Amino acid sequence: MTKINLFVRSSLFSLGLIVSLLIFTTLTLPFKLILPYPRYYYLMSNWGKFVVWWLKITCRINYKIHGLENIPKQTVVVLCKHQSAWETFALQIFFPVQAWVLKRELLWIPFFGWALASMKPIAIDRDQPRKALQKLIKLGQQRLAQNIWVVIFPEGTRVAPGEKKPYAVSGALLATKANCPVLPVAHNAGNFWPKRGFIKYPGIIQISIGQLIDVNDKKANEINKIAETWIENEIVRFEQQNFT
Prior knowledge:
By secondary structure, the chain is of the alpha/beta class. The chain is 45% helix and 15% strand. The chain has a seven-stranded mixed beta sheet. Helix 5 packs across helix 6 and helix 6 packs across helix 7. It is globular, with a radius of gyration of 18 Å. The model has no long low-confidence stretch (mean pLDDT 95).
């Protein structure tokens, strides 16, 4: 595609993203008062599903998922690679009711933050790491006890393809405290929806769901390393097989 074509398609996507957000939050937020939370969550998650569909229509970005057989029926802690905004929408398609660990500043964004705040996120202050960890462990255990999956991006921020940041042990620590298995997730969405880029590039995102990591008789650091190794190896595999 030409640069003009990519710009036009990306502009259409962004326009639809904003308009749908305004309409969807206005229509659905009131249901928070009358629906049981699982039903309310599934209602709200339809916006994420729309975004993934709209991205396919406007920017010709689709996805292929590997490892669907590894999705368990039990509640888990998800440790997921974070390259793009795409995975924050797409995980709502693949997994059941979930809560995300995120920076609290996101909740201050009009409409988007309001909708996000209604979905039981674990919003932390990254400037106070000790308090943030305590809050994650406390609220994370509460969510898991309510049969809500907890989704954590262990690198703490979006990381461009080819780059890597240290994996925080907090997600693995939560899993040990709650005696809950870890589900690792890898993808290469950053190749198509860049971290801070406006232009979206057509192609097929590869997303891979790993086997459950049992936390019994394992320390948090060991669990974290197992997840990190698997995720990073999957991303290398995507690159070697030219999944771009």
